[in-house]
Specification:
- This protein has 385 residues and is mainly alpha-helical.
- It is built from 16 helices and six strands.
- The two termini are 22 Å apart.
Amino acid sequence: MNKLIVLLSETVLFALLILFLIAESVSITILFIVAGFLCAAAVLIFPKKAERIIKPFAKERRTAIIFSMILMAILPFFFTTQPYWLLTLSLAGIYIMLANGLNMQTGTTGLTNFSGAAFFGTGAYTTGLLSVHLGLPGWLTIPAGMFASVLIGAILFFPVLKVKGHYLALVTIAFGLMFNIMLNNTDAIGGPQGISGVKAFAIGGFDFSGMWAIGPFIFSSYANNYWLTLLAAILALAFTRYIYNSPVGLILNYVRDDEWSSKSQGLNISYWKLIAFCCGNALIGLGGALYAHMIGYVAPDLFSFQTSLLLLSMVLLGGMDSIPGVTVAAFVMIVLTEKLRVIQDYRFLIFGLLVIIMIIFRKEGLIPSRVRPYFPKLKSVLMKR
């Protein structure tokens, strides 16, 4: 029975997502958004009743995850004539990686980072330069972009190690601004015009910029990049979940919650902070590298302080140290940003108000981070007995 509820619920949500994306009427779009906010408000106001709805998903967790991945994989079949939304969903997948990378630093370890866009840009520019000037294939440029983000993050880590709190925030803000100024004023990497002509990702003899067909369905480069981004996002989420449920995640939480106590237990605080910073930047660099190959063009405008604030807003709205919450927040914010282009000048004002409201009334975010199960397998065995 629980499996049936999960399958039907996800199918209905999938159908509603498709209808929301293809809706061209502004009034219908606003109606969908209002209905979504009302549902979210009902969940927050009546948490006990919401738990009854969520309980089947908790009991059939594996079924829910596998079926949701299947639904997301077949999504391009519904947008063969509207590839723009595949591009938007691909961007949402990239921002899911970026936000979860930042969450590993800010949410899991407590390292406030206002320079997420700088590491995003490092991955994108490294990939772009290697692709355009050296002609390297994507399976080499993407790891190089990740490595460059980790390396730059390790360099920034030395001043970060010496400060904390508001001073840490100021250091990362300054670094982000310096990075953007450097991009705009360095002619060797394109200056304000950026880098164009970045090659599409290719593996073996398959070029992701090409078109192919399955029966009556014709898939363009948008579908190819969507599947690539979906796979990368799934692997990134699996990695962050593995870190969260491992002893490393427990140690990072310990460092965040009580640094002095963790020091007294013999933990090397600098080492574990560096681990969190590097792992988070690797995910952010991965997002930047995929973005460069997908769009084919990178410019300084995208890697501004505004993008860093957008990433941090995703973490705050979703819930600090909450992988599901940050993932949902990143997806919703990117999709809504595109759907609300009719109110171009007020989109980020609305998101800013949402962040303020969440901070005042629900600091833990949309999906709060749950209490960590220390022995989940032992608990499941005892529950069965």
